[in-house]
Amino acid sequence: LAKTTQPISMDSYEGQEVNITCSHNNIATNDYITWYQQFPSQGPRFIIQGYKTKVTNEVASLFIPADRKSSTLSLPRVSLSDTAVYYCLVGASMDSSYKLIFGSGTRLLVRP
Amino acid sequence: ETGVTQSPTHLIKTRGQQVTLRCSSQSGHNTVSWYQQALGQGPQFIFQYYREEKNGRGNFPPRFSGLQFPNYSSELNVNALELDDSALYLCASSSELAETQYFGPGTRLLVL
């Protein structure tokens, strides 16, 4: 059974680095791992996507080990506006059907 | 280039009624996915369409149905509405299967 697991919540302070890990067993072989940020009553906003090893863009880095059973989103220097819920999204083949599975979400609170 | 749009933004229905939600995919995108997000929960995958064909389906009953049109816009239909169907319904589009999904703002459905 494919399942994704994330910490429920994390606290941080402005300027610190935040790392959020998502565990995802049974991920589809050819699928990317994607991370999203969501504010209340809005659609998820794309942060970063990767297949393996490390990916970096202007806002975050994504680390994916060789077995691809987990991934870690790294936000280098958080600000108050980064307070949001963060989700990982993976694809999986289950019951002969393709499914997209969001993690349970990590609520990040950034304090001044 | 317009992003993903959804209509209506809000909707109130009563139990037993039927509802149709609409999604216009981002320009150049041929894949649309639908998600249900209950309050305080992560998005749950309903189904995905790729070039007018269903590519995958989540664990939702048959009264959740959909289709994708030749212009790649999509509809989600829910029959025999139940109170638990109250949620934010999200649509996401991507340029190809397994590529980055970009989300619309969602439709907030309240079933009384």
Protein model, in words:
The complex is a heterodimer of chains A (112) and B (112). Chain A has 112 residues and is mostly beta strands. Chain A is built from no helices and eleven strands. In chain A, strands 2, 4, 5, 9, 10 and 11 form a six-stranded mixed β-sheet that branches. Chain A has a five-stranded antiparallel β-sheet with strand order 1-3-8-7-6, with no helix packed on it. Chain A is globular and about 50 Å long. With 112 residues, chain B is mostly beta strands. In chain B, 0% of the residues lie in helices and 51% in strands. In chain B, the strands form two sheets. In chain B, strands 2, 4, 5, 6, 9, 10 and 11 form a seven-stranded mixed β-sheet that branches. The N and C termini of chain B lie far apart (37 Å). The mean pLDDT of chain B is 95. Chains A and B meet through strand 5, strand 9 and strand 10 of A and strand 5, strand 6, strand 9 and strand 10 of B.
Architecture blueprint of SSEs:
The complex is a heterodimer of chains A (112) and B (112).
Chain A lengths: L2 E3 L3 E5 L4 E8 L7 E6 L6 E6 L2 E4 L4 E4 L5 E6 L8 E11 L2 E6 L3 E6 L1
Parallel strand pairs in A: 2-11
Antiparallel strand pairs in A: 1-3, 3-8, 4-5, 4-9, 6-7, 7-8, 9-10, 9-11
Chain B lengths: L4 E3 L2 E4 L5 E6 L6 E7 L6 E7 L2 E5 L6 E5 L5 E5 L8 E8 L7 E2 L3 E5 L1
Parallel strand pairs in B: 2-11
Antiparallel strand pairs in B: 1-3, 3-8, 4-5, 4-9, 5-6, 7-8, 9-10, 9-11
Record keyword descriptors for this entry.
heterodimer, A: 112 residues, mainly beta, 58% strand, B: 112 residues, 4-stranded antiparallel β-sheet, 11 strands, 0% helix, 51% strand
